[in-house]
Amino acid sequence: MTPGKLPVHEADCDSAPNPCALDLPRNGIDIKAMLDRVVAEVFDETFAVRTVGSSDAAWLPGVQVSRRADNGRAAIIRASYEWMVAFISELEVQVALFDYDDVEVEKEAELRRLCLVMRAYLHGEGYIEQRRRLFRRGRYRC
């Protein structure tokens, strides 16, 4: 064994559940089903909804939403057991909500709130006037 390194037993790694694999319900909460349910409730037939995914097990369940009467706006909404994120690619802006409890109704309410904000943006009701940069000086105007 190399000094400073702990032994790793492959059997332990193979049998341990992947905390990022979100296709399995956790504490009885199926995040993908919740995302599908809330998106169907918030976005009506005037929106195009497309599932975004990957063969990678760590990929979060998500959807891309845009208006059928294209105004050039689109949003990607993803959800995990602990957080939800919405990303607006044309502006390179994202927002994240964190919810660490085990109450499905509260998680669903947070996800619905995020979807309602994205719906308003896609309808052209919202815009970003300026945003602060995290690692650079100055501001970015949209």
The spatial strand order of the largest sheet comes to 1-2-3-4-5
Q: What is the domain total for the residues?
A: 1
Tell me the number of strands. 7
* Largest sheet: number of strands, sense, barrel closure: 5 strands, antiparallel
| Percent strand | 25-35%
SSE string: HHEEEEEHEE
- The best one-word shape is globular
Structural notes for this entry:
There is one protein chain. With 142 residues, the chain is of the alpha+beta class. The protein has one domain (31-141). The chain has helices at 10-15, 31-42, 104-122, and strands at residues 47-52, 62-67, 74-79, 83-88, 93-98, 130-132, 139-141. The protein has a five-stranded antiparallel β-sheet. It has a two-stranded antiparallel ribbon with strand order 6-7. Helix 2 (31-42) packs across helix 3. The relative contact order is 0.14.
Summarize the helices and strands and which ones pair or pack.
Elements: H1 10-15, H2 31-42, E1 47-52, E2 62-67, E3 74-79, E4 83-88, E5 93-98, H3 104-122, E6 130-132, E7 139-141
Antiparallel strand pairs: 1-2, 2-3, 3-4, 4-5, 6-7
